[in-house]
Amino acid sequence: MSNPEDGPDNIDETNAGIEDEEEKETEAPSDSPPVETQEGQEAIDTDNLEKMILSTGIRVGTPVKTKFMAPFIVKANPEGLYILDISKTLARVDVAAKFIGRANIAKVAVTSAREYGKTPVEKFCELTGATPILGRFMPGTFTNPSLPDYMEPEIVVVTDPQADQQAVLESTRAGVPVIAIANSDNVTAKVDLVIPANNRGRKALATVYWLLAREVLKKQGAIKSDSEMLEKASIDDFETKLVEEV
Fold first, then answer.
1. Residue 91: closest CA among 189, 190, 193
2. Quick check: 94 and 215 in contact, CB under 8 A?
3. Domain extents for the chain?
4. H or E stretch including 82?
5. What are the two backbone dihedrals, phi and then psi, of residue 82, each rounded to the nearest 5 degrees?
6. Residue 134 carries which DSSP code?
7. Residues 61, 46: Cα–Cα separation, whole Å
8. In the structure, what pLDDT confidence band is assigned to residue 244 with cuts at 50, 70 and 90?
9. How many other CB atoms are there within 10 angstroms of residue 37's CB atom?
10. How many Cα atoms are found within 13 Å in the side-chain-facing hemisphere of 3?
11. 12-35 residue pLDDT tens
12. 83-111 as b/e, with b when 16 or more CB fall inside 10 Å?
């Protein structure tokens, strides 16, 4: 896996609490140590969070790119891996959260056939109230009312449009919009909203679902800040842990 620091940082950083450059020189200097404002602390926390997000490899793609994902790619790194535009990832996460926030959250189905997507999806659904569908997607889940697990979702979120292609296909047939986390090599012809991100790595998947959960909770009014989100769950809480053999 490539080092995610190979690509440019595209996240806008907010420097809160910076004093005016034209501060009056006539003011007497204070002997007391500077007091860190809440705004300044939030800026520091945000900066640290952004660095942590980038370190997870969320923007590191594969050696292959499709015409569907080309608009989300900024360059290829020296190892030949395509680097996704993190600013577009964050923008799409925000759009997806607004979309999900307007739906009946219990009717938002989140699928992952990938093992590394299991814990991120479970944690996302636990925090937001969405419905997880993990492992093999049973054909007819969205189209056959006679099945015991049949449901009529309002929105379907898939971890990988290739691995979760049956869910994408049935959503399309049922006229249900699809939000997909898509890597550089994914085909997204049947996807309504693409979130460009590394959907193969454990840490990357944990990060994108943490980001999506954070924004959905904000739209739901459950939290107001990143610090409140971190009190509920960290990115590490979303990560699928490797089981060591004894």
1. 193
2. yes
3. 54-238
4. strand 82-84
5. -75, 140
6. E
7. 24
8. low
9. 11
10. 5
11. 333 333 233 333 333 444 444 444
12. bbbbebbbebbeebbebbbeeebeebbbb
DSSP state of 103: S
Domain 54-238 bears CATH identifier 3.40.50.10490: yes
Q: Report how far residue 183's alpha carbon sits from residue 161's, in angstroms, rounded to the nearest whole number.
A: 9
Instruction: Give pLDDT tens digits for 96-155.
Output: 999 999 999 999 999 999 999 999 999 999 999 999 999 999 999 999 999 999 999 999
Measured distance CA(236)–CA(203) in Å, rounded: 8
Helix (H) or strand (E) holding 205: helix 202-220
Give Cβ neighbours of residue 146 (< 8 Å, ≥ 6 apart).
140
**Burial grade of 239 (CB within 10 A; 0-12, 13-18, 19 or more):** buried
β-strand partners of 84? 73
What is the C-alpha separation between 190 and 168, in angstroms, rounded? 7
Q: Which residue has the tokens 């009717």?
A: 107
Q: Is the pLDDT of residue 40 over 50?
A: no
Q: How far is CA 113 from CA 38, 61, 163, 167, in A?
A: 42, 19, 6, 10
Single-letter amino acid code for the residue at 205: L
